[in-house]
């Protein structure tokens, strides 16, 4: 029995519309969850319910303080939250069906929002009753070592941990991170120690100023002066902790990198139109290798769950990753750094951001259009929205071309390189899995 083209198109339309209504109703109830959570930290009577019960129910390794407190936290927070979500899903079904009466609307909103929130209510009540399976259905509060840094779009354990133990006025999202991205609460800089290289340059100073305004403690790293860097912030002149270092002696910064939550790799050199051997070596040494050595040194300080959740490296590359910068050696060296970061991010133990900037006014580019202060402000604003590849440029095509290039290069690196360095040096010309099999059989033999 065959279907006509019209029947196939009708069937596909019905299926897609149903899925769209289901997805829409789930997104809506998640927005309700996050709004309720955010209000729980703003309104005193809700805060007492939420903070005293939910926040105090966990130790910092996410093991529960006591069975009794954990059960009560469900009755005081999870149950009312899930009932509110259920009510919202019922209202959404009613409004949606009244506006667009069809089977797709009814089935989609029922199978999406109503089913989804009913499961949430059942899980919350089961947690309140002390039934063990309910704990297992809550991966964001599962005790144990973090296996991955915070993820970008869907909340994971290390993302949510920061709401409990880093800054309860940020990281409100429960499942999807839209609300935090919208509010600029997806990354908090409050109280974090941030070390910035290239601190005596125009962008370095502007970044330091905006980091201080965002509540960070800053350490200025510079290779061009030994006296403390001073900055005027909010009308006050501040003398910053300043550490002098030299290219090639990155190891000297080990102690600083241990105590830094965030490392901003912002130093660089532009040899402009030079193309001598010396200019090539200097460009790669400063722009590529020095930053890469510091990045690896910083990543070696990420060991504990707390460090996996909190530590970040921001690498200032340049729009030269994809665009001409009238300086071939600057482009080549910055592009190489950008590609090394893309490769390293495949297995990095913490978040690594790229900061791709267009030309801004500095000693290197005195006639550029953008001011360093504006570029730094936009950078901090994008980081607070957890943008992993921050682009600040007046060339709009870069916002389209770079994400495509980043995706393609990252996919290529992922499929043509292996996680285990030992495997790649042992056997040549095989795929990763084949190598793994051969090496493990060699080891067993
Ligand atoms: Zn929580
Ligand atoms: Zn909370």
From TrEMBL:
Pfam family, one: Epimerase
All copies of domain NAD-dependent epimerase/dehydratase, residue ranges: 194-301
Membrane-spanning intervals of the chain: 12-32, 82-100
Keywords, in A-Z order: Membrane, Transmembrane, Transmembrane helix
Membrane in keyword set: yes
The keyword Transmembrane helix is annotated on this UniProt entry: yes
Gene3D superfamilies, per database record: NAD(P)-binding Rossmann-like Domain
Name of the molecule in the record: NAD-dependent epimerase/dehydratase domain-containing protein
Lineage of origin: Bacteria, Bacillati, Cyanobacteriota, Cyanophyceae, Chroococcidiopsidales
